[in-house]
């Protein structure tokens, strides 16, 4: 498997590389990334042949888009695919008025959720400005899930997105300002509900189809195959545990992993040890075997981290390893695995 291999992006007419570049970390998520390091890791991704880049206004309150756009202007526009998201507008706040603990050294903006037609149009136009772009290839409605909003507010945001925001994305697609439209969120059930209501080309699914969990095989991924809809896979390490292994304090779904998850990952690790396969390599490669998933976008903070992920996605894994996982019931029998 080659990280730089070009793969068809559903019915959109786009091609993406098997490994994309997720830019949440260069928005200073959880820790500061110096400007020179951010430029260096983007340049490293380009030099390695990666040609799909994903960002969002949320990541560092615009910082990720600024940094990515500045670097991408050095490269021919038709040689890469760019995605960003709508649903969060950025509003300036006075110095010292920011309260979020998730970000450090970020621009002085606060987030306002707005999934309406006007809100999505404004968000798109603002992203063009921050990125320094005349067009965006893929546009996702961001985080209309229960994880982000809670059950009651999620219902309101989902309805607004489907009845109002979707019309903005559809108009942008019809005018050629974007080539593919979709939803990016943490729950496959929400993605499936959106696909059953509206004519989406793609989805960005974070953490809900991984080496550890495959419930998306029940109905969502088959529906994507049926409609030739592409799925970008984010969060393939389940927010940490498939990278660290079942160690004390390991994170699963952005919280400390419960005992049953630690036990399951320990069993997967035992098979990895038997076949001399790095756990992270198995996690990165597994998702790319599904025909609806053309690209995997692990968030990348440093050039060292980038090089490691590329090496892992290209690490040889014997077919017997995947067969052993299925035999032990650690991967679903109907889950596609790398050839």
Compact overview of the structure:
The chain is α/β, with parallel strands linked by helices and 339 residues long. It has helices at residues 35-47, 63-72, 117-131, 146-149, 151-174, 188-197, 220-227, 241-244, 259-275, 279-288, 303-313, 319-327, and strands at 6-8, 15-17, 21-22, 52-54, 81-86, 88-92, 109-113, 138-142, 180-185, 202-206, 230-234, 251-252, 255-256, 295-296.
Structural features, described:
With 339 residues, the protein is α/β, with parallel strands linked by helices. It is 40% helix and 16% strand. The chain has twelve helices and 14 strands. It has an eight-stranded parallel sheet with strand order 3-4-5-8-9-10-11-14. Strands 1-2 form a two-stranded antiparallel ribbon. The model has no long low-confidence stretch (mean pLDDT 95).
Let me know the average pLDDT: 95
Name the beta content range.
Answer: 15-25%
Euclidean distance between termini CA atoms: 9 Å
Give the proportion of residues in helices.
Answer: 25-40%
| Low-confidence spans | none
Q: Which H/E pattern describes the elements?
A: EEEHEHEEEHEHHEHEHEHEEHHEHH
Oligomer type: single chain
Work out the helix count.
Answer: 12
Give the C-alpha Rg: 19 Å
What spatial form do the alpha-carbon principal axes imply? globular
- Computed structural class: alpha/beta
Q: Care to count the β-strands?
A: 14
Largest sheet: 8 strands, parallel
Strand order of the largest sheet: 3-4-5-8-9-10-11-14
């Amino acid at each position: 498997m080659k990280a730089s291999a070009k793969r068809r992006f559903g019915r959109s007419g786009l091609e993406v590389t098997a490994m994309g570049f997720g830019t949440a970390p260069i928005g200073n998520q959880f820790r500061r990334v110096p400007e020179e390091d951010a430029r260096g890791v983007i340049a490293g991704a380009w030099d390695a042949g990666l040609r799909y880049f994903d960002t969002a206004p949320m990541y560092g309150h615009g910082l990720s888009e600024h940094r990515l756009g500045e670097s991408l202007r050095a490269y021919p526009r038709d040689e890469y695919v760019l995605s960003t998201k709508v649903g969060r507008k950025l509003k300036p706040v006075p110095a010292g008025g920011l309260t979020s603990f998730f970000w450090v050294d970020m621009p002085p903006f606060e987030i306002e959720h707005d999934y309406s037609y006007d809100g999505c149009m404004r968000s798109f136009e603002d992203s063009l400005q921050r990125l320094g772009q005349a067009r965006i290839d893929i546009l996702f409605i961001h985080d209309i899930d229960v994880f982000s909003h809670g059950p009651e507010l999620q219902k309101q945001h989902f309805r607004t997105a489907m009845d109002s925001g979707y019309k903005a994305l559809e108009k942008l697609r019809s005018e050629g300002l974007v080539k593919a439209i979709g939803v990016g969120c943490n729950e496959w059930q929400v993605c499936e509900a959106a696909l059953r209501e509206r004519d989406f080309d793609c989805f960005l699914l974070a953490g809900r189809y991984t080496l550890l969990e495959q419930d998306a095989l029940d109905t969502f991924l088959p529906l994507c195959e049926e409609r030739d809809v592409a799925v970008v896979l984010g969060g393939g390490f389940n927010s940490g545990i498939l990278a660290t292994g079942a160690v004390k304090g390991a994170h699963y779904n952005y919280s400390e992993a419960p005992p049953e998850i630690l036990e399951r990952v320990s069993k997967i690790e035992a098979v990895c040890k038997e076949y001399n396969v790095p756990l992270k390599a198995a996690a990165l490669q597994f998702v790319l075997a599904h025909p609806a998933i053309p690209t995997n976008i692990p968030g990348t903070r440093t050039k060292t981290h980038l090089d490691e992920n590329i090496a892992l996605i290209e690490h040889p894994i014997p077919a017997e390893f995947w067969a052993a996982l299925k035999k032990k019931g650690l991967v679903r029998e109907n889950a596609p695995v790398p050839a």
